Amino acid sequence: MSANELAKMSDLSGLEQSAMLLVSMGSEGAAKVLAHMNSQHVQHVSQVMARLSNVKQEDAELVLQRLFEDYRSQAGIARASRSYLQRTLDSALGDQLAKGLLDSIYGDEVKTLVQRLEWVEPQLLARQIAPEHPQLQAVLLGLLPPEAASQVLQRLPVASHDELLVRIAQLSELDRGVIEELKQLVDRCLLVANERSHTRVTGVSQVAGILNRFEGDRGQLMEMLKLHDDRLAAEVELNMFDFIILGRQSDEVLQSLLQEVPQETLALALKGVDLELKRKLMEALPKRMAQSLETQVMALGQVPLSRAESARTEVMQIARQMMEAGEFELQLYEEQVVE
């Protein structure tokens, strides 16, 4: 790559480049790549994919070019795939011995399957496994990541905690019968979770859209919603106040808001955001302040996505406080327009 091309690439974060690659692959190819990531990585890159807009062809071509150059720089001999080793070791050792050896090389396939339950709400997962035998509960909890297992355990009956912890501590190898039962349990949990999550996400987004367009007392409706379900009301509010909506505000609103945001917080919030949104916010600032902010953003280098998201949340909290104080009105949705 030329110096100019490298400079352009440096303007794109690693997450943005990954998101552009995944989008360019199409849904089937992207799904295969995402299947090899853990839940945190999938969540982070999916958020960036959802926010991509106005991607220039030259930027996309540079990202693809870098991918192929990195690929060419790797060794010419690829490692053996699991399916290749499965066929080879089956012939040499027999099915059962080959299975044990492959599990020690690649990790237990059941553990990978169970880790998909990281996406399931702990309360829902606890409710699904509660009727099962304690040993099966212990196996599932023993294969979940510790943080997820702890959250599920807290939602199971307290009287069962001691027994489950002892059973988990005594786990060793699993026989095929237990593995089959576990697979069926995981499938049931995922099926119920998928059915509920599709309905829940659509419903929350729909309520947020209704409230954003409601011409009456939105505050009263939100208070009524809180009386029914505080957690659900909080999700609706989060759907209404997203950092991306700042791209729909007037320069006057942005100037009022950004003057109240600490520059360090704003610099963090701008790390990894959509380039068009970043440009919109920069143009709302005085030229000297925008230049100083850009310098600070670049000086930060790579930062954890969690820090950037925390800063964006802080910006939106300030925006909400100013809106509630009557200092301005935020446009929380994009109205359809006609010619």
TrEMBL record:
Function: FliG is one of three proteins (FliG, FliN, FliM) that forms the rotor-mounted switch complex (C ring), located at the base of the basal body. This complex interacts with the CheY and CheZ chemotaxis proteins, in addition to contacting components of the motor that determine the direction of flagellar rotation.
Family assignment from sequence similarity: Belongs to the FliG family.
InterPro entries: Flg_Motor_Flig (IPR000090), Flg_Motor_Flig_C (IPR023087), FliG_a-hlx (IPR011002), FliG_M (IPR032779), FliG_N (IPR028263)
The UniProt record lists the keyword tRNA processing: no
GO biological process assignments: bacterial-type flagellum-dependent cell motility; chemotaxis
Topology of this chain in the membrane: Peripheral membrane protein
UniProt GO MF annotations: cytoskeletal motor activity
Residues covered by the Flagellar motor switch protein FliG C-terminal domain: 224-330
Residues annotated as domain Flagellar motor switch protein FliG middle: 122-191
Any Pfam family: FliG_M
Protein name: Flagellar motor switch protein FliG
Gene Ontology CC entries for this record: bacterial-type flagellum basal body; plasma membrane
Chief place where the protein resides: other
Domain Flagellar motor switch protein FliG N-terminal, chain residue ranges per copy: 12-108
Keywords on record: Bacterial flagellum, Cell membrane, Cell projection, Chemotaxis, Cilium, Flagellar rotation, Flagellum, Membrane
Record keyword Amino-acid biosynthesis present: no
PANTHER family: FLAGELLAR MOTOR SWITCH PROTEIN FLIG (PTHR30534:SF0)
Subcellular localization, as worded in the UniProt entry: Bacterial flagellum basal body; Cell inner membrane
